[in-house]
Amino acid sequence: MGETVKTEKAPKTSFFDGLKAEYKKIIWPDQKTVTKQTIAVVSVSVALGVIIAGLDIIIVEALKLVI
Predict the structure, then answer these.
(1) pLDDT tens digits for 4-51?
(2) N vs C: which end of the chain shows fewer Cβ within 10 Å?
């Protein structure tokens, strides 16, 4: 059979130590970026809501004519 190679395991650290280290790696956006992205999300959500409502009204009226 093949040879087995012992590999050294990484030293065990506390879950919270690892979490803290990863948390420090996060690059947080500035307030201007967050504001711009929030406005974009709300605008697109409202626009899609209006489009879906319009399509719903059109389909309901078309079905009323057929039935």
Answers:
(1) 666 666 666 688 888 888 899 999 999 999 999 999 999 999 999 999
(2) N
Helix (H) or strand (E) holding 45, with range, is helix 31-66
**What is the SS3 assignment for 56?**
helix
Whole-model pTM above 0.70?
no
Give the C-alpha separation, 30 to 28, whole Å: 7
Structural domain spans, the chain: 29-66
Angle at 27 between CA 26 and CA 33, to 5 degrees: 135
* Residues 36, 27: Cα–Cα separation, whole Å: 17
Cα 50 from Cα 38, distance rounded (Å)? 18
pLDDT over 90 at 61, yes or no: yes
